[in-house]
What does this fold into?
Amino acid sequence: MMSTLKEYFEFEKEARSIRRKMADWKFINDQPEPIRTALIVFVETGDLWVSAKLAGMKMEEFNELRIKAKIPMVI
Amino acid sequence: MKIAIADTCFLINWLKYKRKDDIFKLFKLIMIPLPVLDELGPEGRALLGTWVIRGYVSFIPRLEFYDSEAYRIIELAKIRNLPKIDYPEAYCLVIASKRGYTVLTENKATKYITREINEYKHVMVLDSLDVLLFLYGNDKSLLVKRIKEYVQNTKIIFSEKRIRELGISLEEC
Amino acid sequence: MKNVKVMEIVSQVKALGYKIDITKLENDLKEYFEFEKEARSIRRKMADWKFINSQKEPRRTALIVYVETGDLKMACKLADMILWDFVELLRKSNIPIVL
It folds into this structure.
C-alpha cells in the first residue's frame, strides 16, 4: 500500500505541474466566478467532478470548458 | 480531529470571516452536501475554492436513501413550531446522525431537535458563536476580539443572553 | 393553556415516530420565544427602512418578512433569490442575522 501511495503522490505531483504549465491562464482569469475558481481547482487537483460541481455545471459541460482552457487531463 | 457537515446558513457567514481557515484547527474536513452547494452563489462557491484545493472540503451528493428521514425532520420542525428547517438542513442532520459528524448550522431548530429528540441526542450542533468559543475560548480577551471581528465581517449579532453566558458584555462586542 | 400546547406537540411528534424529552421541549419553547422577541426588536431597530422601502417587489416584502419573522429561508424564497444573494441583500439593508 505504501508503494502505491508513493507512486500516486509522485504521479499527482507530475500531473499538477503539467496542468499548471499548459493551462491558458488568460482564458482562465477572464472567466466569471465561480467558473474561474473551478478551473483553478481543476488545475490544482485534477478532480473533474468536484470542479464541475463548484462551477455549477455538468461534467461534460465542464470538460468542454477545461479543453477550451487548454488544461490537459493527465492519465 | 473530527469531521463536520456544514449547512448553507453557516457557510454564508463563516466564508465571509477573515479568519475562516481557523476552523480547520477544529475539523480535519468539512462535508458539504450538494443541495447546500446549490444555495451558495458564484461568490460563495469561489470562496470555497481554496478549501477544495487544500482538501479541506468534500462534497456529498444527494442520496435518496436519506430522503424520507430528512422529510420526517422537516415535518417535525413544522409540528414543533420551530424555525423552519429546509431540505438541505435536514439532510445535514440525518447524515451527521448516521456518520458521527458535527453539524455546523446557524439554524436554532437543529439544536433544539438534538436536545429534545432521543434519536438525535448524540449529534453535536455548533453555530458560529460555538465555533468561535471552541477556537478562542481559552483566552477571554482574544475571544472578545475575535467575536468583534466576526460581527464586523458578517454583520451578524449575537443575542445578549448568549454573550452574557460567556461572561462578557455586549459593549465589549 | 401552555401545557395543552406542549402536550399537543408531544402527541404529534410521537405520531411521527419520535421520542421527545418533554422537559427540554418546554425549556426550549420558552427560550426560543424570548430569543425571537429580542431578535425581532433588534432587526426592527437596526434595519435601514429607507433602503428597504426603496426595493422593488418582491424583495421589499421579503425583507419585511425577514425583519418580522427571522425566517431566512422563507424570506429568501419570497424574494426569489438564492440564499447567498439574499443574505448580501440583508447586509445592504442593515438587517442583522441574530444568533
